[in-house]
Amino acid sequence: MVESMVTRDLFIGGKWVEPLGRARFETRNPANGEVVGSFVAGTIEDASEAVHAAHRAFKAWKETPPPTRGAILLRAAEILRKRKEAVARIVTREMGKIIAEGRGDVQESIDFIEYMAGEGRRLAGETVPSELRSKFCLTLRQPKGVVVAITPWNFPTAIPNWKIAAALIAGNSVVFKPASNTALCAASVVDVYEEAGLPAGVLNFVTGAGSVLGNALVGHPGVRAVSFTGGVETGREVYVRGAQGLKMVHLELGGKNPEIVMDDADLPLALEGALFGAFGTSGQRCTATSRLILHTKIYDEFLGRLTERVQRLKVGDPLDEGIDMGPVASRDQERKVAEYAAIGQQEGAKLVTGGTKLTGSAYDRGFFFAPTVFETRHGTRISKEEIFGPILSVLRADGYEDAVRIANDVDYGLSSSIYTRDVGRAFHAVDDLEAGITYVNAPTIGAEVQLPFGGVKNTGNGGREAGSAAIEEFTEIKTVFIDVSNRLQKAQIDAR
Asked: Which CATH number do you get for residue 398?
């Protein structure tokens, strides 16, 4: 079925606008090259106007009672639930993940918006005793102001909603700049909030090059906080630029996530986890299983089972319900994956299966790369660098300590996984693995919205998204002292 191309503009101050003279760009379906949408290539002036619109809307939104803000978010979730299938198809057409995962992307958005709606009746501070008589001490959370959300293409509705819903419930106004190749997915997110009744200017939407809009937004003096998800190098640039304005900058960056399979593991279960973790979303998740660390006692058996299953994966049109893996998201992604496949072979890794771009009538118009498995040694580039594609490095470990050493010896620390029937060993792994997330007897992917998401080392700069911790990114803590003694009390002096 051929679906029509959609034209969308910028959303600033509650209106969809196309500034005169602005160039446009297109997004394309990575499975077949069809044009999905046409969008404004925004400028520095557009970024500035969006920030000013957000600033004008901030005071009234801040003064809106949080439960009222939550009611608007809840309406947004209800609207998105009704549109789930339509938006999921947009996700699949524009980004390339299989339709089941497209639905999952949208469902995660719904779940998180609903979760944040409930935070409108919490937004908790703390009350603590004073060391003095007739004095009360408490904290409360206040919004930062205008915040910028810069999002990637791999979860084109979920990650934007992680940022937008948390920022909104806390009382901030938002300027949203999505990845250019999933701009229609992003516009669909904005549509939902607009229809839910979000006041004009509270959410603004600009599209275009990160080198233009991203830099302008991060450096704008009217912006108080920046939330960025993307690559490490770009993240560093965002961090430095934001720091020059003393802005709060939250970074969610890369991963090189290990799945450890011990000799006592449930091997069929671990195999399913490895397949889903490595090749779900064509390996284009920051939590994707990029390294499979196998205990030497089960190495050969497990690798044989893995190879047979990988070779049976069905790769093709992601809108086809029977397909296991779709294309990678763009020509640049395809090129990067192919380069790493070549690097692996140059390093002497053994190519077990895959390693090439898929060709033939079903693949020639898209960016399809074969699910790939390498046997390699720890320390190679493919075992330590983020690839962000369907390439799995398999490594041998002599035992638990060796497996943990290999798992930790990378620059990243987002997600990790261990399969074992030994409860004690599982709890040791939870403590020993250097990662923000650890799964026991489950793959490295599968985050739930009610729990914090983030990592250590080069994966970010310490903050967390999702869960109640998401509020921390977008609020300032105010400490309040209320003295009803009717006399001057001197803390640390009178208390002694």
From this structure: 3.40.309.10
Let me know: does 51 contact 223? Beta carbons within 8 Å: yes
Task: Give the total residue count for the chain.
Answer: 496
Q: Across residues 237-266, what is the average pLDDT? A: 96
Catalytic residue among 185, 286, 375, 472: 286
165 touches 473 (CB < 8 A): no
Same domain assignment for residues 430 and 283: yes
pLDDT tens digit sequence for 141-200: 999 999 999 999 999 999 999 999 999 999 999 999 999 999 999 999 999 999 999 999
- Residue among 484, 419, 473 at smallest CA distance from 149: 473
The answer on 390 and 375 residing in a single domain is yes
Residue 326 lies in a domain: yes
Q: Is residue 247 part of a domain?
A: yes
Do the beta carbons of residue 393 and residue 290 sit within 8 Å? Answer: yes
79-81-87-92 Cα dihedral, nearest 10 degrees: 160
DSSP state of 227: E
Q: 180, exposed or middle or buried, with CB in 10 Å at 0-12, 13-18, 19+?
A: buried
Tell me whether residue 252 is one of the annotated catalytic residues.
yes
Reported as type and span, the H/E element at residue 131 is: none
- Candidate list 114, 119, 194, 252, residue with the active-site label: 252
Is the Cβ–Cβ distance between 21 and 213 less than 8 Å? no
Count of domains observed in the chain: 2
Q: How far is CA 63 from the centre of its chain?
A: 30
486 in any annotated domain: no
Do 144 and 232 belong to one domain?
yes
Using the CB atoms, write b or e for 388-399: b if 16+ within 10 Å: bbbbbbbbbbee
Please indicate, yes or no, whether residues 14 and 50 belong to a single structural domain of this protein: yes
Domain enclosing residue 329, as ranges = 257-440
Residues sharing a CB contact under 8 Å with residue 326, sequence separation 6 or more, in sequence order: 30, 31, 92, 96, 97, 98, 282, 315, 316, 317, 318, 368
Is the pTM above the cut of 0.90? yes
